[in-house]
Amino acid sequence: MEASEVWSIGSIDPMVEELNPARSAQSRWLQACFYIAGFATLLGWQIILSFTHSFDCTLFRGKRFAGAGWAFWCSMGYSLTVNITQLVLTSRTVVSRIPFALRWNVAAVCSALSLIGLLLCHLYTTPDNLEMGFALAVACVSLTGAASGIWQACAFGLAGCLAPSYAQAVMFGQGLSGVFSSIVGASFSSSRLGLIFSFTFAAVFELLGIPVLYAMTRNPIVQEAGALKPATVENQVTPSSSPVLTRARSSREILVQNAWPQAVTVAAVFGVSFTVFPGVTSRLSPGSRVPLLISLFQIMDFLGRFAPKCSVLRIDEGSVVSALAALRIFFVPLFIAMQCQSEQTWAHNGVLQVLVMVAFAFSNGYVSTLSMMLGPAQRGVSADEREPVGTMMSLSLVFGIWLGSLLGIVTQVGMQEVNTC
Q1: Is the N or the C terminus of the chain less surrounded, counting Cβ atoms within 10 Å?
Q2: How many structural domains comprise the chain?
Q3: Is the CB of residue 203 less than 8 Å from the CB of residue 43?
């Protein structure tokens, strides 16, 4: 095998862009690639999220399975497999054994296949095989989660090697996928043809991640920085010779000693969010407003991710970002109260629901993006440790999603057995 056929992430110093037109063009092109990569890594989940109401009410008729409805098990299956894959990818040995390009491309293909599988479940599940269709649909969502976990770890790891602006580009791209999916969901959520188009388009787009990686590996900024160093087969036979293993501290040591503040922060942001979204949100009254609230979340989350681009909204002090994340805990009892007291006038007031969702979603995107940008640059993290810290931040993010999904199921204890839809 030729040396150029095997790739792995190396440990590098962040590049300082030279102020010349050629360098600026290279940087913009690389940033565009990270936008597309971020869009693709979360597109599958965003499309699934946009059609949550369709699956819950149209396909599964609002039924609860083992104590919870589709939205809860959907987010649980997704977040669990995301956590497993990203936890595995924090291992230096595993990362050194599996070429970077292989991880990236397998994630793209599996993401596309999972969306096609989920579409087939929606088309061919009938009242006679509802339980089987539900199980297969959750399995497909779990595959989406596994693929997304691998892909996000690759994207944030590579971005962590280069500069915070590239991590922000990934987050921005993920938010943009939410805006796109919200438009699709609002337009086609009740249309069978729209469902087929949306899932098919998303599956095809996921495969575009493969040529995007090719473009990134050819970018001079990446090549000169050594962020994707070609490794010979001989070099990979001995784990200690891998560039990934040249750092002095293990991932656990880096996390415990320096990286934990923002890792905990981003986990808290998504832990709060997924405790009540999409599960509790999908059970608010009236059911006809749920697709609008989900679309609103996706749009405002995107705007929140974009906000740090404005210098006046950028926060560089980690403790302030952590405090903002802690304040979001008050959204949990508020959403639960709106579900429990759905018969009360205030609970199903449209203006209140919209205002709460705007604040909830914007803060999710805003605080999480600030935390992801600060993560690899925390005090005490050396240049060759930024890539694993980027991966750890991604792992913390999805751990928060899993924890929130688990807590979301607990919130449904004692609730009605069937969604009002």
Answers
A1: N
A2: 1
A3: no
